């Protein structure tokens, strides 16, 4: 094991050292050796060091350099050094954090990390929480608690009787709700499209003045951070209306919830803490390795009620059994990395990370605008949406930026226009990386315009 883990550490170090000098998206040549990983399943064993060498030689070059400093695709954080190291150690532990008997260490770490999360996100300190794979599952988890609680108020036990014959629930979402929220609703039997859609403004914010009349059979889904524009639904108004009507408010804050951890951006999340449940990702802006999402529910008993099970072989009685709060039973110890991120950054370090990325997004917008390109959103957070003329011209720039390899940004459509999405979410991105990336994007835009004109 010693030699093998030393070799893994050396290879990982070499990989990370090389990220700066390679194309962010792998070229075809870099992907060519992937086929070496396949072929018929060998009948005989292979030495672990040879397995590792093959994996590194064939797959490392073909990875996307999202752990590096100039990846601006989707909403992708890097992984803070303490979280990579903690993750390695936790992998060596190989704990199952289903119950506290299976892992007293991870059960304790979950509880500590959850307490710190509630503090930095400024959510009710008594809330319950669950460490899940990502925001999709965190939405599902929060909405499972919502579905159960709202139906219980209507006198229906959904755990026992399911949805067949249940009183009808109403679900209200903004027209710009994330597609994975609809997926969670579908999985819960509430339907991806059986929702009341609230129109949005030009930034994608739900219009509070267009909310339908709410009642105590309604779940309202607020978005904190639109995946394109970064805009926040007006949570204060929506939560107040929901509270007055006895409705449940759920917040999808996959990355936007982290604004609450940064004093200069916390105003964006105003009112979010008035909701009943929240979903967020640690693998986005907290910069822990994949996969890591968190569901939080104000009424811990509502979350526990929706997800706990009992069996004679499962010990009961600990103050918090991790598996009572999650859809999964056996799980890896992903709270370890959340703990390590928060412990290494501290609340000040986290606020600085959020602020730095927001400032870097503003810098992208400033220079792209100054060069005559159309920044389509109000850059309030870490997201920039920019068009380089018509659809064909924008697609041409995106293709050139991907081929150039200095950085990587994804495509989208916003306000009916094809656009480039730039999401600044990594602890590793320096101001110099931002300038270098903007230089590369502007050069690609010039080349594309020249090629288009000829
Ligand atoms: C607002 C929002 N909700 C949900 C998700 C889904 O997150 P995950 O892929 O971690 O499940 C995303 C991903 O970008 C998002 O931006």
How would you summarize what this structure contains?
This protein is 41% helix and 12% strand.
Query: SSE order, as H and E?
Result: HHHHHEHHEHEEHEEEHHEEHEEH
CATH topology of the largest domain: Aspartate Aminotransferase, domain 2
Question: Whole-number radius of gyration?
Answer: 23 Å
Average pLDDT, all residues: 97
Assembly state:
single chain
Strand coverage percent: 5-15%
The profile of the biggest β sheet is: 7 strands, mixed
Low-confidence stretches: none
- The appropriate CATH architecture of the largest domain is 3-Layer(aba) Sandwich
CATH class of the largest domain: Alpha Beta
Main sheet strand line-up = 1-7-6-5-4-2-3
Euclidean distance between termini CA atoms: 60 Å
The CATH superfamily of the largest domain bears the name Type I PLP-dependent aspartate aminotransferase-like (Major domain)
Count of β-strands: 11
Structural class: alpha/beta
The count of helical stretches stands at 13
C-alpha geometry: globular
Overall tally of structural domains: 2
Q: In percent, how helical is the residue content?
A: 40-55%
């Amino acid at each position: 094991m010693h030699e093998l883990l030393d070799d893994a550490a050396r290879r990982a170090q070499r990989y990370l050292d090389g990220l700066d000098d390679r194309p962010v998206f792998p070229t075809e040549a870099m992907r060519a050796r992937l086929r070496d990983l396949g072929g018929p399943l060998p009948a005989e064993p292979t030495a672990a060091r040879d397995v590792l060498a093959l994996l590194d030689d064939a797959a490392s070059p073909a990875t996307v350099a999202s752990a590096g400093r100039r990846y601006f695709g989707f909403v992708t954080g890097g992984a803070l050094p303490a979280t990579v190291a903690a993750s390695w150690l936790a992998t060596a532990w190989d704990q199952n954090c289903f119950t506290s008997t299976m892992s007293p260490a991870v059960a304790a770490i979950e509880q500590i990390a959850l307490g710190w999360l509630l503090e930095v996100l400024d959510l009710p300190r008594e809330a319950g929480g669950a460490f899940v794979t990502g925001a999709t599952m965190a939405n599902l988890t929060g909405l499972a608690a919502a579905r159960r609680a709202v139906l219980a108020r209507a006198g229906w036990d959904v755990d026992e009787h399911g949805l067949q014959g249940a009183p009808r629930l109403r679900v209200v979402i903004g027209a710009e709700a994330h597609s994975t929220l609809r997926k969670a609703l579908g999985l819960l039997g509430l339907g991806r499209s059986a929702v009341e859609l609230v129109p949005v403004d030009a930034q994608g914010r739900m219009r509070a003045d267009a909310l339908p009349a709410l009642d105590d059979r309604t779940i309202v889904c607020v978005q904190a951070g639109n995946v394109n524009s970064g805009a926040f639904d007006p949570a204060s108004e929506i939560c107040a209306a929901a509270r007055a009507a006895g409705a449940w408010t759920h917040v999808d804050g996959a990355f936007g919830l982290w604004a609450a951890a940064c004093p200069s951006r916390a105003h964006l999340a105003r009112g979010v803490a008035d909701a009943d449940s929240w979903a967020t990702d640690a693998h986005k802006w907290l910069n822990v390795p994949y996969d890591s999402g968190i569901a939080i529910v104000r009424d811990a008993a509502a979350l526990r009620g929706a997800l706990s099970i009992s069996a004679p072989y499962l010990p009961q009685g600990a103050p918090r059994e991790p598996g009572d709060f999650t859809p999964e039973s056996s799980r890896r110890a992903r709270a370890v990395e959340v703990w390590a991120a928060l412990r290494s950054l501290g609340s000040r370090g986290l606020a600085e990370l959020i602020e730095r990325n927001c400032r870097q997004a503003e810098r992208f917008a400033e220079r792209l605008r100054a060069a005559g390109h159309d920044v389509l959103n109000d850059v309030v957070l870490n997201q920039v949406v920019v068009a380089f003329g018509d659809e064909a011209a924008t697609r041409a720039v995106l293709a050139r930026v991907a081929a150039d390899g200095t950085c990587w940004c994804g495509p989208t459509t916003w306000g009916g226009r094809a656009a480039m999405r730039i999401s600044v979410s990594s602890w590793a991105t320096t101001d110099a990386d931002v300038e270098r990336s903007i230089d590369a994007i502007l050069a690609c835009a010039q080349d594309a315009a020249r090629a288009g004109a000829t």
